[in-house]
Amino acid sequence: MKLDEKCGVNGSLVGRTEPHLGEEHQTRGKAVASAGAEVSGKQEANGKQEVPRKSLNMYTWQEIQRHNQQADQWLVINRKVYDVTGWAGRHPGGRRILTHYAGEDATDVFRAVHLELDVVQLYLKPLLIGELAPGEPSQERHKNSQLVKDFQELRKTVEAMNMFDPNLGFFFLHLAQILILEVLAWLTVYQFGSGWRVTIFITFLLIISQAQSGFLQHDAGHLSIFKKSKWNHLLHKFLMCHLKGLSGNWWNYRHFQHHVKTNIYPKDPDINMGPLFLLGDLQPVKYGKKKIKYIDYKKQHLYFYMVGLPLLMPVYFNAKSMEMMYLRRDWGDIAWVSSFYIRHFITFGPFYGIFGTLLLMYLVKFLESPWIAYVTQMSHIPMQMSTEENRDWLSTQVLATCNIEQSFFNDWFTGHLNFQIEHHLFPTMPRHNYHKVAPLVRSLCAKHGLQYVNKPMLTAFGDIVRALKKSAALWKDAYYET
């Protein structure tokens, strides 16, 4: 993929319009029915004729599934067929999200990641080329149509319960918590100087502020704080770029791929950790059979503590963020991220100097990193990983995700990501409503025989290492077999 492709500020499957592509597709592919204009009007009761209108091409799933390449991408939303090939490079969520769903039904993921559907539907119109033939099911034939229908009914139910309405007071308190910690850290240094006891104390304050900023930017990035996308985008820039010093566009580009194809190798970038870590059952065997040994992978569950936990934030995330901003010449994010460093130099520079302030910033990131690593990895690494199997939306998310038991502390410590199943099914839902819809999701999973995993937090932490150890053993067996 090209790093200079458009990767904007939400996970939309659509964006700016382009000239209608319908004419081109009247001669492409094998249509089930002709797209010719109706030439005979239907006589109505009042004696007037209907205005002749153009009918849509009709396509079978067999035809649609052939258009699944980067240079030829069709997808289906609510039985309508769209060609996004020529427009994918301008997609606000990045080209790859569309590529991941080329040739597939994208109805549920489209509904999941969009906030203002009435606006988005306007942008879909120029991409429409046809619809599913009358005899075709609404989703691919191998999918459980009753399960898909039941999940869509669940979606309607939680919408009727107003579960997508944000509580602005809830999010204001979380933002206030962050800002108070930031101000308190500066006031402490200003009042008591930069001795080692003070430095330890303000480091503790800033670690909490940084972690909670990460959780709140996650809410804004998923458009779950305000009902208007633009306000979510603006707050996301403030939280991710100004308060955390990372590119918001980089985060969205990476994170939305993770959401739409969770634990699907190699489409989910969060599980493509080679050559440092080998995850799941497939990647270790692949490396082992090819005799690939960049590192002694049979010890990866041990060096996870020395490398994975402390270096995720200060090294990996920072490097990837800076790389994308530089390669894409993302001047907007560069300016926002620069404000993070300027703010620290202004507030802490007079007490620690430039070099000391940099050390303080990266000490905070270093100590924050295990917190974020545990919270983000405990719900996915121990779960099922596979190559593309084109499952329905509910199965995709439930098989690849687990929850952590609820408590006041767990909710706060994880930013409500202890409800990862509900979050992945309904990404734009405000997190304060996850616990309300969890019983409904659990019931639907039980009806269709899907295991709804909910475990204690410490067990979840341990499962990360146990999963790494299992993958290491698979690599070792494949690597040393004769």
Topology readout:
Elements: H1 22-25, E1 57-59, H2 61-64, E2 68-69, E3 72-77, E4 80-83, H3 95-100, H4 107-113, H5 117-124, E5 128-132, H6 145-160, H7 168-192, H8 196-221, H9 229-243, H10 248-260, H11 282-289, H12 300-328, H13 331-377, H14 393-400, E6 403-404, H15 408-414, H16 420-425, H17 434-447, E7 454-455, H18 457-480
Parallel strand pairs: 1-5, 6-7
Antiparallel strand pairs: 2-3, 3-4, 4-5
Helix pairs in contact: 6-17, 7-8, 8-9, 8-13, 9-13, 11-18, 12-13, 12-18
Briefly say what this structure is.
The chain is mainly α. Helix content is 55%, strand content 5%. The strands form 2 sheets. A 5-stranded mixed beta sheet has the order 1-5-4-3-2. Strands 6-7 form a two-stranded parallel sheet.
Notable features of this structure?
482 residues, mainly alpha, five-stranded mixed β-sheet, two-stranded parallel ribbon, 18 helices, 7 strands, 55% helix, disordered N terminus
What does the model show?
With 482 residues, this protein is mainly α. The protein has 18 helices and 7 strands. The strands form 2 sheets. The protein has a 5-stranded mixed sheet. Strands 6-7 form a two-stranded parallel ribbon. Helix 7 packs antiparallel against helix 8 and helix 8 packs antiparallel against helix 9 (229-243). It is globular, with a radius of gyration of 25 Å. The model is unreliable at 1-53 (pLDDT under 50).
| Major sheet: arrangement of strands | 1-5-4-3-2
Instruction: Report the order of strands and helices.
Output: HEHEEEHHHEHHHHHHHHHEHHHEH
Give average pLDDT, whole number: 89
Indicate the percent of residues in helices: 55-70%
Strand content: under 5%
Tell me about the largest β-sheet. Answer: 5 strands, mixed
Number of helices: 18
**Assembly annotation:** single chain
Rg estimate, integer Å = 25 Å
Structural class: mainly alpha
